[in-house]
Amino acid sequence: MEIVELLNVDAVVPNMKAASKKQVLQELAARAARLTGKDERIIFDVLLERERLGTTGVGNGIAIPHGKLPGLPRLYGMFARLDTPVDFDAIDDQPVDLIFLLLAPETAGADHLKALARVSRLLRDKGLCEKLRGSDNRDALFALLTEPATSHAA
C-alpha cells in the first residue's frame, strides 16, 4: 500500500492551528468530514475513543490518530503540520507537530493495519520529517509524503 492511495493534496494541511490535543482532533474531524462526507461528531468521537485506549502520539513529534467508521467506502488519510507543537500525551512526552490521520471502513481489518504500518514506516524517516517540518507548502508536503517507498528505505 502506497501513501498516494490514502492521501490527496486536499487532505494536506500545511499550517494547522491548535492549542491542545482535543482541538487538534476536533480540527481533524471537521476537515475529515468534508473529505469523507461523514458526520464530524462521529469522526471526533471515534478518534477520542481511540485516544482513550492509549495515545497515538508515537514519539519524535509525531502522532497517528486513527479509527474505523461505519459506512466508509475506503481508507482515508490526512496529514497536518501544526504551527505550534501541542502536548499529545506522546510515549516520549515530547509535543507533537506532525500528524497523519487515518480513517478506515469498519470492515477493513488487514488493510487498516497495513496502512498504519506504512504510515509509521514513512514517518520513522528522520530526514523526511525534517523536510516536512521545513515546508509550509501544501504541494511540497504532498510530494514529500507520496514519493515512492524506495526513497524511504531504511
Please describe what this structure looks like:
The protein has a single domain (3-147), classed as 3-Layer(aba) Sandwich (Mannitol-specific EII, Chain A), CATH 3.40.930.10. 39% of the residues lie in helices and 23% in strands. It is built from five helices and six strands; from the N terminus they run E-H-H-E-E-E-E-E-H-H-H. A hairpin with a 2-residue loop joins strand 2 (57-59) and strand 3. Helix 1 (21-36) crosses helix 2 (40-53). It is globular. The two termini are 17 Å apart.
Counted up, domains total 1
At CATH level 2, the architecture is 3-Layer(aba) Sandwich
Estimated radius of gyration: 14 Å
Per DSSP, the total helix count is 5
CATH homologous superfamily assignment: Mannitol-specific EII, Chain A
**Stretches where pLDDT falls below 50 for ≥5 residues?**
none
CATH fold topology: Mannitol-specific EII, Chain A
The profile of the biggest β sheet is:
6 strands, mixed
